[in-house]
Every structure is written in C-alpha cells, then in structure tokens.
Amino acid sequence: MEIIKEIGRKIIHLTSIFIVIFYHFFGKGTTLFILTALLLIFLIAEYIRVELDRKIPVFWRFFREREKKALGGEVYFLLGSMIAISVFPKLIAYSAILMTTFGDSTASLAGKAFGRIKVRQKKTLEGCIAEFLVNLVISFVILKHLPLAIVMAGVATIVETLTTKLDDNLFIPVFSGFAGVLVLRIMG
Question: What contacts 54, CB < 8 A, 6 or more positions away?
C-alpha cells in the first residue's frame, strides 16, 4: 500500500515537467511570473492547511506524515525551480529541474520496490544507484557533455541521499545547477 501512495505522490510530482516545457517555449520572464503566481496559490493553500488546520481533500492523502504540519514539497520545488531558472543557464536549469523530478522519484520508487541495503535512514543503495543513472541520462541528453552530466548527476544524487530532514526539492536543483555552472567555469 505504501508504494501505491508513493506512486500517487510521484505522479503529482512528475507534472512539474511542464515547468521545463513552459520555460522552453515562453522564456524566463513569463515562466518566473507564472511560477510566482503558482507559488502564491500554493502558499495560500498551505496557510489554510497548516495554520488553519483544514484538510484539502484531494491532496491530503498524498502528504507524508512529516509534511502534514509543515510546508509541502511543492512549495520547495517551485522555489528551487525559480532559483534554477533565475540563476543558471537554460540547459543547466532544465537538467537541474528534471533531475529533481525524475531522479528523486526514481530513488524513492526503486528504493521502496527493490531496496535492501540501507545507506542512510530510509535511503537505500539501490535507490541511489537508480537515481544516479536516471540523473546521468537526463543530464547527458540535455547537456551533451559527459563530465558535466556526471558531476550534476552525482551532486543531485548525493544531495538527495544526504537530505533527510529538510526538503530536497529545494536543494537538488540549486546544488546540482551550481555544480554544473562551476564545472563549466573550471573547464573554460
């Protein structure tokens, strides 16, 4: 039953691919404006849910226990996406956002389905390996630069693995994107 709930959570999470598509077709300014509007809507919903203690019927069952009295991951994901789009070159932002979406989802689902070797709290080696491979494919397909893809995929995987109390939806796009820019600067 837990894996079914997690699949439901990840399907919602995967809709974030539209951020990258929207950014590609409408540019930075329009995308940031729309994401800011979405962030405001989610913040109002979160205020109602957390501060006023009102359940939002459709989404309530997808919240993890630790999220039921705190900001949901969607707020952090929007913030992470907004930072990536604002600060990083377009292809690095695409890669960072999509790794957050697909890598994180892969780690969670693979870890729950196949995970045997624990590496950190609820994180498994199998989930980490699956995430790294998905992150690597995403990065390489977008960036077409293997060293850059390896570094970004590695950083995203490490950040997801080490982040257990804070929300990795903010950390993954920011840290992996920063690592990507750093690699480009070092390589010239």
Answer: 48
Helix intervals (H) in 47-167: 57-60, 73-87, 90-98, 104-114, 125-143, 146-162
Query: Residue 90: its pLDDT value, please?
Result: 98
Structure tokens at 60: 């309530």
* Residue 107 contacts residue 130 (beta carbons within 8 Å): yes
Q: How many domains does the chain have?
A: 1
Does position 159 have pLDDT exceeding 90, yes or no?
A: yes
pTM of the model: 0.88
- Go through 71-106 and write b for each residue having 16 or more CB atoms within 10 A of its CB, e for each that does not: bbbbbbbbbbbbbbbeebeeebbbbbbbbbbbbbbb
Domain span holding position 102: 2-187
Q: What is the pLDDT of residues 90-137, one digit of tens each?
A: 999 999 999 999 998 899 889 999 989 999 888 999 999 999 999 999
Structure tokens, 28: 């930075």
